[in-house]
Amino acid sequence: MNDHDHELRQAEAGDVGPRISQGERAVPSRRSRGLSVRAIVPNAITAAALCFGLTGIRFATDGAWGQAVLAVVLAGLLDGIDGRIARLLKAQSRFGAELDSLADSLSFGVAPALIIFLWSLQDLPRIGWFAALALALCCMLRLARFNAQIDEEEQPHKSAGFLTGVPAPVGAGLAFLPLYLWMAFGEPLFREPVLVALWIVAIAFLMISNLATLSWAALKPRRSIRIELIALLGIMSAAALLEPWFTLVAVCAIYLALLPYGFIRYRKVKQAQLNASDRGARA
């Protein structure tokens, strides 16, 4: 058995850590006594995000709605950094990818659906439960679609620097918008189960839609406004501590306002790519 076959056998046995790329020298065949820190750190962050999301359900069963929502929001923040840390440490692995998908489906699909059901939709048991199911199911379908397309070369949105549909963490945050408004203003209308059901069904279908949405990579502010943008982010960070519910409402409003902008910008980018390819073909 050569070194390459030995490494493949190790990968199939479930080793956690970065795979050896073609052209790299294989590690000598000494049996490892454990996982390296660089393999543990990103997966531990993903596991922590999963625990935060599930803990949100526990808070919801006690009627602690603010803590329940903030637990899911914290899970979203951790989800935003685990992949980046894995790439920084060169610790990407198949195990990490599968754990991340499982954590996302529970933290941003199941947990928000149950929290919102316990908060509002249980007053409309049948329709409310179907709406909650739609949110959880569509989140899982989105993640399944993402995993199925991850190795495909032809991905029009990704090649243009955009995402397909609303990401799962963002979808969970948007689904909580009625709860943010209720916490901020105390208006019973925002807890009306029919309105809440319609809202989360709309968010559920946005997650599985083919709508081109902006990714962090696509957001490239002009150099002339970067100082102002840094100041704005600093102020919003302080506002998140002092007035978390108003801040979350503002973040949701900004994201929803950017959806049409993302759609228009994607069409312009694709048209520019088509024009460039036409010029190349004529040349």
Automatic annotation (TrEMBL):
<keyword id="KW-1133">Transmembrane helix</keyword>
<feature type="domain" description="CDP-alcohol phosphatidyltransferase C-terminal">
    <location>
        <begin position="226"/>
        <end position="260"/>
    </location>
</feature>
<dbReference type="InterPro" id="IPR043130">
    <property type="entry name" value="CDP-OH_PTrfase_TM_dom"/>
</dbReference>
<dbReference type="Pfam" id="PF08009">
    <property type="entry name" value="CDP-OH_P_tran_2"/>
</dbReference>
<feature type="compositionally biased region" description="Basic and acidic residues">
    <location>
        <begin position="1"/>
        <end position="12"/>
    </location>
</feature>
<dbReference type="InterPro" id="IPR048254">
    <property type="entry name" value="CDP_ALCOHOL_P_TRANSF_CS"/>
</dbReference>
<keyword id="KW-0594">Phospholipid biosynthesis</keyword>
<feature type="region of interest" description="Disordered">
    <location>
        <begin position="1"/>
        <end position="29"/>
    </location>
</feature>
<feature type="transmembrane region" description="Helical">
    <location>
        <begin position="160"/>
        <end position="182"/>
    </location>
</feature>
<feature type="transmembrane region" description="Helical">
    <location>
        <begin position="127"/>
        <end position="148"/>
    </location>
</feature>
<keyword id="KW-0472">Membrane</keyword>
<keyword id="KW-1208">Phospholipid metabolism</keyword>
<protein>
    <recommendedName>
        <fullName>CDP-diacylglycerol--serine O-phosphatidyltransferase</fullName>
        <ecNumber>2.7.8.8</ecNumber>
    </recommendedName>
</protein>
<dbReference type="Pfam" id="PF01066">
    <property type="entry name" value="CDP-OH_P_transf"/>
</dbReference>
<dbReference type="InterPro" id="IPR000462">
    <property type="entry name" value="CDP-OH_P_trans"/>
</dbReference>
<comment type="similarity">
    <text>Belongs to the CDP-alcohol phosphatidyltransferase class-I family.</text>
</comment>
<dbReference type="InterPro" id="IPR012616">
    <property type="entry name" value="CDP-OH_P_trans_C"/>
</dbReference>
<dbReference type="GO" id="GO:0003882">
    <property type="term" value="F:CDP-diacylglycerol-serine O-phosphatidyltransferase activity"/>
</dbReference>
<feature type="transmembrane region" description="Helical">
    <location>
        <begin position="194"/>
        <end position="218"/>
    </location>
</feature>
<keyword id="KW-0443">Lipid metabolism</keyword>
<feature type="transmembrane region" description="Helical">
    <location>
        <begin position="225"/>
        <end position="242"/>
    </location>
</feature>
<feature type="transmembrane region" description="Helical">
    <location>
        <begin position="35"/>
        <end position="57"/>
    </location>
</feature>
<keyword id="KW-0808">Transferase</keyword>
<feature type="transmembrane region" description="Helical">
    <location>
        <begin position="248"/>
        <end position="264"/>
    </location>
</feature>
<keyword id="KW-0444">Lipid biosynthesis</keyword>
<dbReference type="InterPro" id="IPR004533">
    <property type="entry name" value="CDP-diaglyc--ser_O-PTrfase"/>
</dbReference>
<keyword id="KW-0812">Transmembrane</keyword>
